[in-house]
Amino acid sequence: MPVTSAAQAADARLYLRRLAEISHNPLLATLVSVLIDLQIDLALERSGGSLASWKRTAGELHAERVDIVDALVSRSPKRAMELTRAYQQRALT
Questions:
Q1: Segment 25-34, tens digit of pLDDT
Q2: DSSP class of residue 69?
Q3: Do the domain assignments include residue 72?
């Protein structure tokens, strides 16, 4: 789903938090939620109020997000960690 408004940014934040909660690990869910908030806030700040650049970046990273979810579903923590690190590195460059 492309992010085209602040309301959709809030929806994206909620969606990502729910992904963390399905781990059924309260500590992990809390830590991930904090990191999600930081990442989304940073993206909004760097965008200067325009979601166009965020939309472009998020769209380009869609396949990588799907790969991360697939690794989580297959219960492959090492692969999920590798994919997540690569995703964040690419997202910030």
A1: 889 888 888 8
A2: H
A3: yes
Condensed to tens digits (0 to 9), the pLDDT of residues 25-79 reads 889 888 888 888 887 777 777 767 666 766 776 677 888 888 998 998 899 989 9
CA distance 78 to 75: 9
User: What do you get for the CA distance between the two ends of the chain, in Å?
Assistant: 22
46 and 4 within one domain:
yes
Q: How far is the C-alpha of 93 from the C-alpha of 90, rounded, in Å?
A: 5
| Residue 90 one-letter amino acid | R
Kindly state whether residues 67 and 45 are assigned to the same domain.
no
**Tally of residues, the chain:** 93
